[in-house]
Amino acid sequence: MNKILLLSFLVLLLYLGFETLSHRRLVKKIPHRLAVTGIRGKSSITRLIAAGLRQAGYRVMAKTTGSRPVVIYPDGQEEEIKRRGKPNILEQKKLVRKAAGQKVDYLVSEMMSIQPECLQAETSYLLQPELLVVSNIRLDHLEALGKTKEEIARALTLAFRPQTPVYIPEEELFPPLPSEARKKKAPVIAVKKDSASELLAGQLSYPEFEPNIRLAVNILRTCGLSDEVIIQGMEKVKPDAGCPRVWVKSFDDPGTKLYFVSLFAANDPQSSIEAMFKILERTGWDGRAIYGLLSFRADRGDRTRQWVDFLAKEWQEGFLTDPESGRQLKFAGLALQGAGGAPARRLLLKKLKPSLSQSVYTVRGSRPEAVLLDILTYFSSISSNHDLKTQSELVVFGLGNIVGFGQEMIDYLERKADAIKL
C-alpha cells in the first residue's frame, strides 16, 4: 500500500511539474501581458486598453469577467464564457493557451480573484503580467478582502510582482500600497488627471468614469501609442454588458412614463451614487426627484448590510449625499427587492428619521413586469410630496446586484422598453 501511495505521489509531482513547464512556455509565447485588478471598473479598463491596442494594429486578446464574462478576439468578436459551476481562476490557464494559439501581441485580462490567497497565484503563476492596473479601492467583498479601504488595499497588494509596475489613480493610493510595493520591489505609478482623459470622458458613446479612461490612456501611452490613435480606438470600444443603460416605458395604468436606469453592476453604494450623479449630468435630470429599486442577493448578505448602513447615514431629509464629494441629490423613495428585503426594511426604518418611513417599500412578487407595476403604483402614490413632474414621469435607478433579478430586469427592458442613448 505504501509503495502504491508513493508511486501515486511521484506521478502527481511529475504531472504538476509538466503542467508548470507547459504553462510557462505558453506564457512566453505571448510578448506582452497586462492584468487589471481592483474593485470597480476592471471590465471597462480592460476593454478600453484592448480597443486602443487593436486600433494601433496589434493582435490583441482580452478577457472580462464582469457582468458577462467574455473573451474578446483579435478581430473584436466576443465569445461568452460558459461556466458549469462557480468562477475559477484556472480559467486563466485556458485563456493563456488560447492567446498563445492565436499568436497575439498582447493579452489583456481582468483578474478574477476575490480571495486574497488567489491574487498572488493569478499574477505570479497564471498571468505573469508585465504591467498591473489597480482600478480603485472600494468597500466591497468585505468578508474576503477586509472591512476598511486600508485592509482591502493591503489585500490587493498580494497581486503585486517584483519589478512589475503598478498603475493606480492618484486619489486611490491608500497608505498600505506604497509600503507593500516597496517590500516587493514593484514600482507604483500614481496616475494624475490630464486633458486627454477628461476630453475622452465626454466623447465616448456611453458614460464612463474618468479614472478608468485615465488609467487606460496611460497604459496605452506606455505601450507606445499616440494620443490620436488612443482616442480613435476608444471611440470604437464596445461597452461592458453591465455599463449604465437607460430605457423608457409608458404604462397606461397608473398613467406613468418610467425612465429606468440600470446601475445594478455598480454593486457597492459609493460606486452607485457616483454613477447616479454621472447619469443625471448627462440626462439633465438633475434636480428631479429620484427613486431607487435596490435588489438583494441571498448569498451577498454583506452587501445588503453595507447598503443599509450607507442609506441610514447618507439619506436624510429627502436627499442622498455622496460622502466623498458632499454632493446631494433628491431621493424620494426606495423599493427593496429580493432575499432579505423585509428584514432590511425593518432595520433601515429603525435607523432613518420617521419622516422617511413611508418612502421605503418592500416589493411584492419577483417577475420584472409585476415589480415595475408594483413600484410605479407605490412611487406615484407618494410623489405628490415631491416635484409635480414625478406624478407622470418617474426616474428609477436599479441598484445593488446584477446577478439574478438585476439581469432579468435588464433582459425584460431590452424586450419591452425603448432604449435611450446616453
User: Treating each run of at least 4 consecutive H or I residues as one helix, how many helices?
Assistant: 15
CATH architecture of the largest domain: 3-Layer(aba) Sandwich
What characteristic shape results from the CA principal axes?
globular
Mean pLDDT, to the nearest integer, reads: 87
- Strand element count: 17
Helical/strand content category: alpha/beta
Kindly provide the name of the CATH class of the largest domain.
Alpha Beta
Strand content: 15-25%
As for the number of domains, it is 2
> What is the CATH third-level topology name of the largest domain?
UDP-N-acetylmuramoyl-L-alanine:D-glutamate ligase
Largest sheet: 9 strands, mixed
Helix content class = 40-55%
Rg (CA only): 23 Å
Low-confidence stretches: none
What is the first-to-last residue Cα distance? Answer: 68 Å
Tell me what the structure shows.
The protein has 422 residues and is α/β, with parallel strands linked by helices. The chain folds into two domains: 17-234, 3-Layer(aba) Sandwich (UDP-N-acetylmuramoyl-L-alanine:D-glutamate ligase), CATH 3.40.1190; 245-420, Protein-Tyrosine Phosphatase, Chain A, CATH 3.90.190. It is 43% helix and 20% strand. It has 15 helices and 17 strands. Strands 9, 10, 11, 12, 13, 14, 15, 16 and 17 form a nine-stranded mixed sheet that branches. Strands 4-3-2-5-1-6-7-8 form an eight-stranded mixed sheet, with helices on both faces. Strand 14, helix 13 (341-351) and strand 15 (360-362) form a beta-alpha-beta unit. It is globular and about 65 Å long. The model has no long low-confidence stretch (mean pLDDT 87).
